[in-house]
Amino acid sequence: MESTRVKINLQSGEIEFEGSEEFVQNQIDNLDSVIKLLSSVKTTAITQRSDIGETEPMETDSETDENTQELNNNNSNGEISVPNSFGEWLHKFKDDINDLEKCLVTAFFEQKNSQQNDFKTREVNNALKEHGIKLTNPSTSLKRLVEKKLLFQTRKNGTVKFMRVSQDGMQLLKSLLR
Predict the structure, then answer these.
(1) What's the whole-model pTM score?
(2) CATH code, domain with 133
């Protein structure tokens, strides 16, 4: 299947669509709503979401308002509040998140439940397995998140790497909230 790609750089506001020709054409037809969305949401969250392979239609203004309201319902300093239950945590996010986003959501949950505020790949793998979420290769997904600067290594103990979600990763998580 052939992929079509369009990139627009409104002076580093960057809008990029990639996917089937039909998908790209739909996005171009809705460019006015995408530009409105760009003005109401931080550009970095949209850029990062498209960078990790998002091929779903962009959010509408009403969905953006819901995300903003959800963020306001969290901690007063803008942090996302993390419940004790992974299932409850996962329910805070949209149903159509991709495998990389699932890894990021799980990594942040594990980080917040850690004494040192970081996590190991094994912890993310185990949490996904425990909840019946099957990913092709969670370790590779986490490596891709590091490459995209959504995660970073905090320390290393022998061969075990400890990581943390970056500020860019936090912005992406906030954009994925229901």
Answers:
(1) 0.57
(2) 1.10.10.10
